[in-house]
Write a structure and sequence with these properties.
Chain B: Keywords: 4Fe-4S, Cell membrane, Iron, Iron-sulfur, Membrane, Metal-binding, NAD, Oxidoreductase, Quinone, Repeat, Translocase, Ubiquinone. Chain B: InterPro entries: 4Fe4S_Fe-S-bd, 4Fe4S_Fe_S_CS, NADH_quinone_OxRdtase_chainI. The complex is a heterodimer of chains A (367) and B (192). With 367 residues, chain A is of the alpha+beta class. Chain A has a single domain, classed as Orthogonal Bundle (Cytochrome-c3 Hydrogenase, chain B), CATH 1.10.645.10. Chain A contains 15 helices and 8 strands. Chain A starts with 7 loop residues before the first strand and ends with a helix. Chain B is of the alpha+beta class. Chain B has a single domain, classed as Alpha-Beta Plaits (2-Layer Sandwich), CATH 3.30.70.20. About 3% of the residues of chain B have low confidence. Classes of the chains: A alpha+beta (367), B alpha+beta (192). The complex binds iron/sulfur cluster (2 copies). The site of one iron/sulfur cluster (SF4) has 14 residues of chain B, from helix 3. One iron/sulfur cluster binds next to helix 2 of chain B.
Chain lengths: 367, 192
């Protein structure tokens, strides 16, 4: 007897906890197998890029916090660097180091959250997530100490940072860095060789090299597929050429590789931070910049390596106090374009593991 | 696909990691009975304004990205600017601190050290579109104006954000990092 089957369309999200609240996937299934995927987003769309055109440059810094809200510091840095390029401002040494310290701490915090949620997505209900969040909390406390906020930092300014680090900051940071490798090894022991994680993640949702490149994927999604591309090394910005660190890559581009790359990047960030603390010079934290800036008519695309990939700001100035055009190259959105390739042919039960391994933040996808 | 021959090993390993935590210090506090000290630079949910030193230049109003400060300013008989009316809508404020940074006197406007600013029920609201449900409009109970912005008592202390002299007088922040450090922890339990 031949069974006649029909394709079946189901919706996943947006209320599903793993779709991060504001993301919907329309799946076409053949039995359990995914045969087509259509991501639907826009539930968090706030028209940010348009809003930014109606405000002056300084008022847009708090807006950047709200893009990828798990890495606000790096968003701040990217936007400030873009406007500094328009204005030809040189940032003082100390401020450069503080920015690197903040960016690397932020990368650690973002990856910790990313791994924690990924574990949550594959069904490890709360233990790994809580452990990750315990460490993330310590980083957030350091941000709180420096700028008074725990999520939307608004810490960097054109020409530097808004305030110098408080006295208590460096001792606390050193303490954090001393303990961090131990904690990372602990997670490694808990997660990386766990049979359930291996079965759910190894060999699942493979994104081959060529496809990753063709989809313009970036960050751990690209590096997980085995391509050694990191803007901090390949197009050094700020003062990243002064630090020694490695770029971890995966082998086959499966869900596990993307996880492993993130875990290793946390270790590398610890390395960078240790060097940055050792080299941190004294001095000014702010260049002389007037309060109301009017960059000359020009344009810039300035990109940094965010925790999710290349985060770029395209800013066009027309000589007035508001930007003429303000566009964000959001890594989460672009990494999503590879989602279909990863999902096709896999069972619906693998969907959340694969989706969780991309580590998207909807604030950045929808803007 | 990896084999499931040694299934159970990971479970035991995980259990061991979890059990190791039993000897560690607690990192949770029983809010609201116990409270942590906030950061000295906390951008808390309050705006405090000082009428005496304010020169009514409206720089804070201009700096605000969400336009939640509104000031009415006039010239007095002595030709000096004075503030007739000021309101800050804390429901709109994103506590970015740009107003604090822009103040030329450096002592006229502050963020609060408080972080709880809730009302149980909104009885006053504006902008209702349909019907009389508060969710349609905006709660006016968190809009502060004039004298309310001046209050500077123990219940509404000032934060040290951008104000170093206040910052150094505030109690030190409670840090989780002081409670859990991996190495100390291992040492204490004789593992290193
Ligand atoms: S903190 Fe920011 S949003 Fe709030 S009143 Fe000041 S400038 Fe406006
Ligand atoms: S910026 Fe300062 S001095 Fe000027 S109006 Fe605001 S509070 Fe007053």
């Amino acid at each position: 007897m031949v069974l006649k089957t029909e394709h079946y369309v189901i919706n996943v999200g947006p209320q599903h906890p793993s779709t991060h609240g504001v993301f919907r996937l329309r799946l076409t299934l053949d039995g359990e197998v995914i045969v087509d995927v259509e991501p639907i987003f826009g539930y968090l769309h706030r028209g940010m890029e348009k809003i930014a055109e109606g405000r002056n440059y300084t008022k847009n810094i708090p807006l950047t916090d709200r893009l990828d809200y798990l890495s606000s510091m790096i968003n701040n840095q990217a936007y400030c660097m873009a406007v500094e390029n328009l204005l030809n401002i040189t940032v003082p040494e100390r401020a450069q180091y503080i920015r690197v310290i903040m960016a690397e701490l932020q990368r650690m915090a973002s990856h910790l959250a990313g791994i924690g949620f990924f574990m949550n997505d594959i069904g490890a209900f709360s233990t790994p997530l809580l452990y990750m969040f315990r460490e993330r909390e310590k980083i957030v406390e350091l941000f709180d100490m420096a700028c008074g906020q725990r999520l939307n930092y608004n810490y960097m300014r054109f020409g530097g940072v808004s305030m110098d680090l408080p006295e208590e900051f460096l001792p606390a940071l050193k303490k954090l860095l001393d303990g961090m490798p131990g904690f990372i090894n602990e997670y490694d022991k808990l997660i990386s060789t766990n049979e359930i994680v291996l079965v759910r993640a190894k060999g699942v949702g493979i994104l081959p090299k060529e496809l990753a490149v063709n989809a313009s994927a970036a960050g751990p999604v690209l590096r997980g597929s085995g391509i050694k591309w990191d803007l901090r090394k390949n197009q050094p910005y700020s003062i990243y050429d002064r630090f020694e660190f490695d770029i971890p890559t995966g082998e086959i581009g499966d869900t596990y590789d993307r996880y492993a790359v993130r875990l290793e990047e946390i270790r590398q960030s610890v390395r960078i931070l240790k060097q940055a603390i050792a080299q941190l010079p004294a001095g000014e934290t702010m260049a002389k910049v007037s309060k109301l800036i009017r960059p000359p008519a020009s344009e810039t695309y300035t990109a940094v390596e965010g925790p999710k990939g290349e985060l770029g700001f395209f800013v066009v100035a027309d000589g007035s106090e508001n930007p003429y055009r303000w566009h964000v190259r959001a890594p989460s959105l672009i990494n999503l374009t590879a989602l279909k390739e990863m999902l096709l042919g896999w069972k619906v039960a693998d969907l959340m593991a694969i989706f969780g391994s991309i580590d998207i933040v909807m604030g950045e996808v929808d803007r | 696909m990896p084999s499931l021959n040694n299934f159970g090993e990971g479970l035991l390993r995980g259990l061991k990691v979890t059990l190791n935590h039993i000897g560690r210090k607690w990192i949770t506090v029983q809010y609201p009975e116990q409270r942590l000290n906030m950061s000295r630079r906390i951008r808390g949910t309050d705006i405090i304004w000082d009428r005496e030193s304010c020169i009514s230049c409206r720089a804070c109003e201009r700096a605000c990205p969400v336009q939640c400060i509104s000031m009415a300013v006039s010239r007095g008989e002595d030709k000096k600017l004075k503030t007739d009316d000021i309101t800050v809508d804390l429901g709109l404020c994103i506590f970015c601190g740009l107003c604090i940074e822009s103040c030329p006197t450096g002592i006229s406007i502050y963020l609060g050290y408080n972080y709880t600013n809730t009302t149980h029920r909104c009885s006053t609201f504006s902008g209702a579109k349909t019907g009389n449900t508060p969710s349609d409009g905006r709660c006016r109970e968190i809009v502060r104006s004039n004298d309310e912005l001046l209050v500077d008592d123990a219940a509404r202390p000032r934060s040290g954000y951008y104000r170093p002299e206040i910052s150094s007088a505030l109690p030190p922040q409670t840090l989780l990092i002081d409670q859990t450090t991996y190495l100390e922890d291992l040492r204490k339990r004789g593992l290193k």
